[in-house]
Amino acid sequence: MSVTVxxxxxxxxxxxxxxxxxxxxxxxxxxxxLELFVRAGPEAVEAWARGGAKIFxxxxxxxIPRTVAGAVAAARDLGVELLTVHGAGGLAMLQAAxxxxxxxxxxxxxLLTSLGREELAAxxxxxxxxxxxxxxANLAARAGLDGVVSSGEELAQVRTLWPEGRRVxxxxxxxxxxxxxxxxxxxxxxxxxxxxxxxxxxxxxTQDPNxxxxxxxxxxxIGGEGPKGHGQEVRGWTG
Length: 239
What we know:
By secondary structure, this protein is an alpha/beta fold. The chain has one domain (about 5-230): Aldolase class I (TIM Barrel, Alpha-Beta Barrel). The protein is built from ten helices and nine strands. It has helices spanning about 15-25, 35-50, 65-75, 90-100, 115-120, 130-145, 155-160, 190-195, 205, 210-220, and strands spanning about 5-10, 30, 55-60, 80-85, 105-110, 145-150, 165-170, 200, 225. It has an eight-stranded parallel β-barrel with strand order 1-2-3-4-5-6-7-8, surrounded by five helices. About 45% of the residues are buried.
């Protein structure tokens, strides 16, 4: 099974984000996080989608059902391909997201990959991530969403629990173990082996001296979805 690779545009600058997209094109799958979305706005997301990019809008929506329903519909209308809500919002909120997503895929975030045992204990959630991931994955499936986001540590569990769901894995690094602000990370080969349908990579590609070569290496490692090499096709946002 091919794994979709989403390159995280972890920057506050629209110009920097577009420079990365231009350099990595014809790879089309890009993740827009909260900071870039707040800085660049929905107009940028819509322009990128119209220009041919597949946008994963990672906002982790978590609010009352009516508010989340409206935000999901707004993202859908921008042409977003994949959107995150938070599983902790509860069944009614997740159902509201499912009812308004249209053709857009919506996945529920379980536990942030920045949360390790100490952070979980400080929240009063014990020290194990698996029970919480299982609980929120079950809610997402009941609500009619498309899948979940989890770390690689819980991936096999999610695959068993919800084999037909999308399994989106962030925190991908070339070597396992805590890295930067991540606590539960996984290598590309591990993610593919354990059943990820989508992986999210940021620094692994964008901070490499040759981002295009790093992306090609990653695609070869996991059999990921996306063309290799640099394309000359003009994107819609660059005219």
